[in-house]
Design goal:
The protein is α+β, with helices and mostly antiparallel strands. The protein has a domain of 106 residues: FAD/NAD(P)-binding domain, CATH 3.50.50. The protein is 38% helix and 13% strand. It has four helices and five strands, in the order H-H-E-E-E-H-E-H-E. Strands 1-2-3 form a three-stranded antiparallel sheet, with no helix packed on it. A two-stranded parallel ribbon has the order 4-5. Helix 4 links the parallel strand 4 and strand 5. The two termini are 34 Å apart. It catalyses: 2 glutathione + NADP(+) = glutathione disulfide + NADPH + H(+). Pfam families: Pyr_redox_2.
Length: 165
């Protein structure tokens, strides 16, 4: 939600608006000099995600649910118990939201890998890149390639394939 779905949808919507602007002349609208400012959408997107996080956290607190941040592990206790930072917590229901981190290969595995970024890096970009190469063919790669291309980056999508389809 924080570094994927919601911010990607904001960027997707920005690309949809760019497509509408592109097509305006076909519908009789004159829109000379329309410019896109990556920094504005980035700042507004980031603020929107922060606001949503605050809303979610407040709703959890209103429901009298404790949020415990830290590294946890299940214990061998008879009751469902986790230990976080040396303190044990027991409850009938325990939810562990692990999050996820992408695996980035080393330069020795894939020469030049350190020159790339993960999809998280996409959301950290301070400006729209003039050119971009997206490696992969999953839906996130295809969506990011489409967003970048529509907003003005010369984008390419690299797909590894054992055979020509």
């Amino acid at each position: 939600v924080n570094v994927g779905c919601v911010p990607k949808k904001v960027m997707w919507n920005a690309a949809v608006h760019a497509e509408f602007v592109h097509d305006h002349a076909d519908y009789g609208f004159e829109t000379p000099g329309v410019k896109f400012n990556w920094r504005i959408i980035k700042d507004k997107r980031d603020a929107y995600v922060r606001r949503l996080n605050d809303i979610y956290e407040n709703n959890v607190k209103k429901a009298h649910i404790d949020i415990i941040r830290g590294y946890g592990k299940f214990t061998a206790d008879l009751e469902p118990t986790i230990e976080v930072e040396g303190k044990k917590y027991t409850a009938p229901h325990i939810l562990i939201a692990t999050g996820g981190r992408p695996a980035v290969p080393s330069d020795s595995e894939i020469p030049g890998a350190s020159l790339g970024m993960t999809s998280d890096g996409f959301f950290d970009l301070k400006e729209l890149p003039r050119r971009s190469v997206i490696v992969g063919a999953g839906y996130i790669a295809v969506e990011i390639a489409g967003i970048l291309s529509t907003l003005g980056s010369k984008a390419a999508l690299l797909i590894r394939q054992d055979k020509v389809v």
